[in-house]
Amino acid sequence: MNALSLAFGVVFVxxxxxxxxxxxxxxxxxxxxxxxxxxxxxxxxxxxxxANVAPRxxxxxxxxxxxRTRAVFESVPWVRKAVVQRQFPNRxxxxxxxxxxxxxxxxxxxxxxxxxxxxVFEANQGEVExxxxxxxxxxxxxxxxxxxxxxxxxxxxxxxxxVLERLELTGQGSWRAKLDSGAVVELGQGSLDDIxxxxxxxxxxxxxxxxxxxxxxxxxxxxxxxxxxxRLRGVTTVGAGDKEDKKVKR
Length: 250
Description:
With 250 residues, the protein is α/β, with parallel strands linked by helices. The chain has three domains: 29 residues; 68 residues, membrane protein fhac (Ubiquitin-like (UB roll)); 149 residues, Rossmann fold. Helix content is 31%, strand content 29%. It contains five helices and 13 strands. A ten-stranded mixed β-sheet has the order 6-5-4-7-8-9-10-11-12-13, covered by helices on one side. The longest helix has 24 residues. The protein is elongated, with a radius of gyration of 30 Å.
């Protein structure tokens, strides 16, 4: 009997504690009263967070779902990552990391961008700080690879005083570059090492070839095993307006 009474007493005390904790957790003292936002907030402010985040948060200090809260913040344009922590008794602390846009992704008019991690995200392109971002495109899931190729090729074309404006990886796995002069360079298929070798070979001899004819390059095809083909602006072979392809061997 004494053991049974003791057991009932323990259960009663536990029930009282549970009810007491539940009552305490519902008190206004623990209702979320403020959210401290730190980190990267270049493209967002208190007004945008109040409009996009606050209406979607539920619960108080104890019951708010931190995972869901993080997801809500990360759904806001330009926010890449959010770290959410509780601050006793009624606040949340959020540290944000924004996307750093370094390229456009897709075709003209596409609202997508590529960040420094090679991730595609959507945002208002009118809010991009730089007006000279390159245009990258390729199959879904290949943004990181295309960005890596751009970062490898861009310094090479700078040796020609040219800017690599566009880089495309086609669905067939072929690479195509477009320079600020309007010249289109077919880099062919293969690994990044393969297209780097072709680009270096092309760049190392182009100046001599173009100066020989005194013409700018309109297009180049590097898909040859022992050289490349050039189309020079204004070089004709038959009639006015016709252009000639010049094959350059190594």
